[in-house]
């Protein structure tokens, strides 16, 4: 059989004419064979061109990245029902955005609640509306002893909105259905309409805790499309910022997990340490979340000797503290009793769903974009390794601990490099290559972050596609609640700590 998939590289600009455009039956066959042979989906989305509906897929395996495209009518054969669950969220998104129906999709429902871009009637039927969140038939389990618990979308405190519907037999959860979309802002549709100077500001707010991860994907795409070069000093700063962002979030979540099992000393300790690393991002960028740092062509703030010394001194101070509090948490038998065998997702299930990041690595899926598709300085840095990969809360927590220690190590390695940024850069309009395509991938703290850009014949952005790792992993959280007690939900939820706004876009 002919292979129609075109191999590409992370951040490589290619002419759109080079993307294989095949009939849908060939597209279906190629993707079916690919995902059944240890392949995973990076991007799969629709766009309109010359009054035609087109689909484009970017996929990956151990051999690299590949792209393929097709044209489709209003209805196309679903890959979810017959081939793989990896497609299920992507096809739902295609249906919502462009009114194209994946025929045979086993559970077709809204993702984010908005009228589709094409202006056509929705394909979800008349039983619920795109303008009324959650107004659709939820999955139901029947039985005399079955009861239903609905939580959200409004939660206590500052938790973001999401609806969780549990089907239970007593305390046991038989099924959890998660419905999001309450924070949909229309970012993808907005991007082609905005001036370039707004691009980084928008992408920094896709998910506030992944400021560096998302903005790095944007800036790398813009650099490739405009031919901008980035000096080594700026790459060092970008890599340090991405690792500081990783440490901040992992430390914060280990503290939250401590609180969820009522082990308050580590919760307080981790909370204080998270603040230390947020402050290091401020040292690096002037902002505790890293906003305003990464810009196309480099960074907006130079890291001088003073910043290097402050970061190095704080790492030396906090590393033994992190080791100590981690030992306190992971050796407490009361903690282990709650973490072990809770919220388990088996390796095969994780592969079927296409889990990424620490959620995937905790299930013994060894994928890390820093290793498979290295950008910035990652080609010169050692990879991490994970030793507890049983797919439960303990595994997800342990992977985070290992990633914290690895990030501390590689930040010190980056600080030892003598190169400095030549000069700070600011966002400015630049000419983009016309009729071009680029996909960028980075390992954000939750996992694989990816942005795709298609430009038109005048070099304007025609389609901007964003994928947060949470897009893959929310279904993993739902599966981790199967046959667990409903009281385990906060612990499972925090062990993933997925993004609502990064998903809702």
TrEMBL record:
Coiled coil: none annotated. Keywords: Oxidoreductase. It comes from the Bacteria. One of its GO terms (molecular function) is oxidoreductase activity, acting on NAD(P)H. Residues 265-429 form the NADH-quinone oxidoreductase subunit D domain. This is Ni,Fe-hydrogenase III large subunit. Pfam families: Complex1_49kDa.
């Amino acid at each position: 059989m002919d292979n129609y998939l075109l191999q590409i590289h992370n951040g490589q600009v290619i002419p759109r004419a080079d993307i294989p455009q095949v009939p849908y039956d060939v597209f279906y066959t190629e993707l079916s064979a690919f995902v059944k042979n240890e392949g995973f989906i990076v991007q799969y989305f629709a766009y309109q061109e010359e009054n035609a509906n087109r689909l484009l897929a970017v996929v990956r395996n151990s051999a690299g990245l590949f792209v393929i495209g097709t044209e489709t009518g209003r209805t196309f054969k679903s890959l979810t029902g017959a081939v793989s669950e990896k497609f299920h969220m992507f096809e739902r998104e295609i249906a919502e955005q462009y009114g194209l129906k994946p025929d045979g999709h086993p559970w077709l429902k809204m993702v984010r609640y908005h009228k589709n871009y094409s202006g056509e009637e929705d394909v979800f039927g008349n039983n619920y509306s795109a303008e009324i969140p959650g107004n659709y038939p939820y999955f139901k389990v029947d039985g005399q002893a079955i009861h239903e618990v609905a939580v959200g979308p409004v939660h206590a405190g500052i938790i973001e909105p999401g609806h969780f519907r549990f089907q239970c037999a007593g305390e046991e959860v038989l099924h959890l259905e998660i419905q999001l979309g309450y924070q949909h802002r229309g970012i993808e549709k907005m991007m082609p309409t905005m001036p370039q100077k707004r691009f980084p500001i928008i992408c920094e707010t896709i998910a506030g805790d992944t400021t560096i991860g998302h903005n790095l994907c944007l800036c790398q795409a813009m650099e490739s499309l405009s031919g901008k070069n980035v000096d080594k000093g700026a790459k060092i700063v970008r890599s340090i910022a991405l690792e500081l962002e990783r440490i901040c979030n992992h430390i914060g979540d280990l503290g939250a997990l401590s609180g969820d099992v009522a082990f308050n000393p580590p919760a307080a300790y981790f909370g204080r340490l998270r603040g230390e690393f947020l402050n290091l991002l401020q040292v690096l960028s002037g902002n505790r979340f890293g906003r305003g740092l990464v810009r196309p062509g480099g960074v907006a703030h130079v890291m001088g000797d003073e910043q290097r010394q402050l970061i190095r001194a704080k790492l030396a101070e906090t590393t033994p503290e992190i080791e100590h509090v981690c030992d306190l948490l992971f050796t407490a038998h009361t903690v282990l009793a709650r973490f072990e065998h809770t919220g388990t997702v088996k390796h095969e299930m994780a592969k079927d769903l296409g889990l990424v990041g620490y959620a995937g690595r905790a299930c013994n899926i060894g994928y890390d974009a820093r290793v498979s598709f290295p950008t910035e300085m990652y080609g010169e840095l050692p990879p991490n390794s994970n030793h507890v990969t049983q797919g439960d809360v303990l595994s997800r927590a342990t992977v985070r601990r290992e990633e914290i220690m690895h990030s501390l190590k590689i930040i010190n390695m980056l600080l030892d490099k003598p190169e400095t940024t030549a000069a700070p850069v600011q966002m400015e309009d630049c000419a983009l290559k016309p009729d071009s395509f680029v996909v960028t991938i980075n390992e954000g703290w939750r996992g694989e972050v990816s942005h795709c850009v298609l430009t038109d014949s005048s070099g304007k952005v025609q389609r901007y596609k964003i994928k947060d790792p949470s897009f893959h992993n929310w279904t993993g959280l739902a599966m981790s609640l199967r046959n667990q007690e409903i009281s385990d939900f906060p612990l499972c939820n925090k062990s993933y700590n997925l993004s609502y706004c990064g998903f809702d876009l």
